[in-house]
Design a protein that fits this description.
mainly alpha; three-stranded antiparallel β-sheet; 18 helices; 64% helix
Length: 379
C-alpha cells in the first residue's frame, strides 16, 4: 500500500493505506503543540484513499458521473473539493524518506547540535513548511552557540505568525546572548504581556536587565516570578547572585540554601553557598560544599577553582595544586586560575612552572602589575 507522511499536533503521522500509525518523536520541540498556522495534517479517516480517488455521490437519485443530468456536475464539484487534499497526500508520500532525518534531528537538538542542524537542514531543504523542524533547528543553533542563525529561524516563524510563547523565550535568550539587549527586552516584554501566567519570559527578561546592570529591575522581576511560581529555582538563583554582588551574605545564603533544599544535586548553588561561607570566614563549612559540587559535576570549573583557593589559603598548597590544574582543564583559562596556579607552584618550589603560569596569565591580561612584578622577581 502507499504511505504518506504528515505532522499534526506535534507528532509525526504515517498513513499506510487506510490504517493510521502515529510515530512519537523522542524529542519534542519548544512548545507542546504545533501552533495555529503550522503544518498540521488535514487528513482524516473519512478522506479518500489516494489510489481510489474521491468518493462517489451515493445519495438517492445521484449516481456516478454522467448517469443523470445533475450527476456529472455534482461529481465535478466533489472532485474540485478533493483535488487539493489529494495533491497534499501526494507531496507527503514523496517526503516519507524525511522521517528518519526529522527524528534524528529532533532527538539530538541539545545533545549533538551539529548533527541535529545537518539533519534538520536536509529536511527543510525539501519541505520548508515544516515549522517543527525549523523551531527545533533554532534550538540546535542556540546549543551550538550560533545565535544569529537561531534568531533567523525564529524570526521566520514570527513572520509566519507561528511564534509560540516558548519560541519567544528562545528568541529573547538568543538575542541576549548575541548582545542585542534592546531587541531581547522587546520580545520578552511582549511575551510576558501576552502570557501573564507564564514565568519564563519574566525570568529571561530579568537576566537581560541584570546584564544591562539594572539590578533593581532584575530583582523586581525575579520577585514577580516567585509570585507566579513559588520556589522557582532560577529566580531564587538570580536573587542570590544579586545579594552576593552587594555583599548581603545573609540573604544570599538563604536563597542558595533554599535551592539546595529543593535540589540537593544543584552544583551551582552548592558552589555559591560555599563562596558565601568563605566570605563569612568559614572555610571549614565551605570546603565540604565545594567537594559536594565536584562529586555531582566533576568538571565544574568554578567548584574546582574555589576548592583549590580554599586549600591554598588554608596552608595546603600541595593539596590545592591538582584542583587548580583540573579547573584549567575543565573551563576556559582565567587570570584568577592561572595566578592561583602560579602562586601554588611557587609555594611548592616549582619556580619554572610558576613562571609559565604567570606568563600565560599576562598574555590574557597584560595589565596586572602584581603578577608582572612576581614574574620578574622569580626569573
Amino acid at each position: 500500500m502507499g504511505a504518506s507522511l504528515c505532522v499534526a499536533d506535534g507528532r509525526i503521522q504515517v498513513h499506510q493505506g487506510a490504517a493510521l500509525r502515529v510515530v512519537r518523536p523522542r524529542h519534542r520541540s519548544v512548545g507542546d503543540e504545533e501552533p495555529r498556522g503550522g503544518a498540521a495534517c488535514a487528513c482524516r479517516r473519512s478522506e479518500p484513499h489516494p489510489r481510489r480517488g474521491p468518493p462517489s455521490d451515493t445519495r438517492p437519485g445521484r449516481g456516478a458521473p454522467g448517469r443523470q443530468r445533475n450527476g456529472g456536475a455534482a461529481a465535478r464539484a466533489r472532485l474540485r473539493e478533493w483535488r487539493p487534499r489529494l495533491a497534499c497526500r501526494g507531496r507527503r508520500a514523496a517526503g516519507i524518506h524525511l522521517l528518519p532525518h526529522l527524528n534524528r534531528g529532533m532527538s539530538a537538538a541539545r545533545t549533538e547540535p551539529e548533527l541535529a542542524i545537518r539533519e534538520l537542514t536536509a529536511v527543510l531543504a525539501e519541505d520548508s513548511s515544516l515549522l517543527m523542524a525549523r523551531r527545533t533547528r533554532a534550538v540546535a543553533y542556540a546549543a551550538a552557540g550560533r545565535h544569529d542563525l537561531a534568531i533567523a529561524d525564529l524570526r521566520a516563524l514570527e513572520n509566519k505568525g507561528a511564534l509560540t510563547a516558548e519560541d519567544a523565550v528562545v528568541l529573547g535568550d538568543n538575542l541576549r546572548s548575541a548582545g542585542r539587549l534592546e531587541e531581547a527586552a522587546l520580545v520578552l516584554e511582549r511575551a510576558a504581556r501576552e502570557n501573564p501566567a507564564f514565568a519564563q519570559p519574566v525570568i529571561s527578561l530579568a537576566e537581560v536587565r541584570i546584564q544591562e546592570r539594572k539590578y533593581d529591575e532584575g530583582a523586581a522581576l525575579c520577585e514577580r516570578v516567585l509570585k507566579l511560581v513559588p520556589d522557582h529555582i532560577e529566580a531564587l538563583r538570580r536573587l542570590g547572585d544579586l545579594a552576593l554582588l552587594r555583599e548581603d551574605l545573609g540573604t544570599a545564603a538563604a536563597r542558595y540554601e533554599r535551592i539546595v533544599a529543593l535540589d540537593a544535586n544543584d552544583a551551582s548553588a552548592l558552589t555559591k553557598l560555599g563562596v558565601v561561607r568563605m566570605r563569612s570566614g568559614r572555610a571549614d563549612l565551605a570546603m565540604p560544599l565545594f567537594r559536594q559540587a565536584i562529586e555531582r559535576e566533576p568538571r565544574n570549573a568554578d567548584a574546582l577553582l574555589y576548592l583549590a583557593g580554599a586549600l591554598a589559603s588554608g596552608g595546603r598548597p600541595a593539596d590545592a595544586l591538582p584542583y587548580f590544574e583540573r579547573a584549567l582543564e575543565a573551563g576556559p583559562p582565567s587570570t584568577m586560575a592561572l595566578n592561583g596556579l602560579g602562586l601554588t607552584r611557587l609555594a611548592v618550589g616549582d619556580t619554572a612552572g610558576a613562571a609559565a603560569a604567570f606568563r600565560k596569565s599576562l598574555q590574557l591580561d597584560p595589565k596586572q602589575p602584581e603578577t608582572a612584578r612576581t614574574l620578574a622577581e622569580i626569573r
